[in-house]
Amino acid sequence: MTKCTGWLAAGMLCLAGPAHATDADFLQSLAGSWGGRGSVTTETGSRPIKINCKFSSRATASSLSLNGKCTGYVVFSRAIGADVKTDGKTYTGVYTGSRTGPAGLRGNRAGDALVLGIRWAKEVNGDRAAQLRLEKLGNDRMRLTTIDKDPATGKNVVISQINLSRT
Predict the structure, then answer these.
(1) What does the DSSP assignment read for 64-132?
(2) Residue 32: which domain range?
(3) What DSSP string describes 21-47?
(4) Is residue 1 included in any domain, yes or no?
(5) CA-derived radius of gyration, the chain
(6) What's the CATH number where 133 sits?
(7) Is there a contact between 72 and 51 (Cβ–Cβ < 8 Å)?
(8) How many structural domains compose the chain?
(9) Which of 95, 121, 136, 148 has its C-alpha lying 20 to 30 A from 104's C-alpha?
(10) Backbone angles phi, psi at 11, to 5 degrees
(11) 23-38 in b/e burial notation, b at 16+ Cβ within 10 A?
(12) Sign of the alpha-carbon dihedral angle for 93, 18, 134, 111
């Protein structure tokens, strides 16, 4: 099966641009230091790898910069980052950290979550599309989830999920 080289896309968002007041409050609430655990599947159908992650985020009323590093086992480590902007309705940008190269991000805010389509620079799991979901789970928790289509079944599968708490 095809390697999922952008597994840590779930870990990154940087938002910049004009935003409505509700977006400003949402973005600013994600500022700070975050740490947590999760899992990543490097190949659809393979066994998940447990990972530990640390992120630092800066925010203004119209931007969020979230940068970090995730490690799995002793020898597995990846720095991740992204730049995304919003016009108050749509979020667009670029994710960096995938072995396929920079990936495009485009989506919307749905309540306490950003739902972003990912367009990989090269095929991952048989196509170039996936989804990144950043969910705020209260004041001090958030979840980053990457969902992709299994080329063997055509069904959506969770490629990575990271549960973070404010540190």
Answers:
(1) EEEEEEEEETTTEEEEEEEEEEE-SSEEEEEEE--TT--EEEEEEEETTEEEEEEEEEEEETTEEEEEE
(2) 7-166
(3) HHHHHHHHTT-EEEEEEEEE-SBTTSP
(4) no
(5) 15
(6) 2.40.128.20
(7) yes
(8) 1
(9) 136
(10) -90, -5
(11) bbebbbbbbeebebeb
(12) negative
2 within a domain of the structure (yes/no) = no
Average pLDDT in the chain: 82
Place of tokens 């994710």: 95
Return the structure tokens found at 109.
């805010």
In tens, the pLDDT along 85-107 reads 888 888 888 787 787 889 999 99
Structure token pair of residue 27? 């973005």
- Cα–Cα distance between 73 and 149 in angstroms, integer? 26
pLDDT at 105: 92
Lookup result for tokens 């485009």: 106
- Please check whether residue 75 lies inside any domain of the structure: yes
What are the structure tokens assigned to 18, written together? 């004009």
Q: How many residues does the chain have?
A: 167
- Joined together, the tokens standing for residue 110 give 């749905």
Query: What is this structure's pTM?
Result: 0.84
